[in-house]
Amino acid sequence: MHLAYPAVLSALLFCTGIYGVLARRNAILVLMSVELMLNAVNLNLVAFDVWLSRTTRETPHSGQALTLFTIAIAAAEIGIGLAIVLAVHRNRGTADIDKLRDTAEPHGPDEGTVTDATEDEKAEATA
């Protein structure tokens, strides 16, 4: 098999993953698109490793070893990412990325502070 076939398939998978990251609003679909991009990279690593092993007889198959590390990193990323998405969904009730802007901390010194409150209202706010 020629090197062009897996390289073109890998490019198509990577472009599909980029489209998914940029166009989707659901956090789980964004994580799935990132996984698709990582799998495209894995396909490229293995394809080029096989191509290089055919040209030189004493290749240590470093592309396949890098693929194993990429799979391990992808598994850790999806585990942590899903845990964060589930925690946010429990607190906010949605996994929509655009609606999560409300969770940001106030940026200015006047935002989020009580300015014209009496001493009793301040005591009730801290209690």
From TrEMBL:
Subcellular location as annotated: Cell membrane; Membrane
Cell inner membrane found in the keyword field: no
Keyword list, A-Z: Cell membrane, Membrane, NAD, Oxidoreductase, Quinone, Translocase, Transmembrane, Transmembrane helix, Transport
Compositionally biased region (Basic and acidic residues): 97-110
EC code(s) of this entry: 7.1.1.-
Membrane topology: Multi-pass membrane protein
Protein name: NADH-quinone oxidoreductase subunit K
Name of the coding gene: nuoK
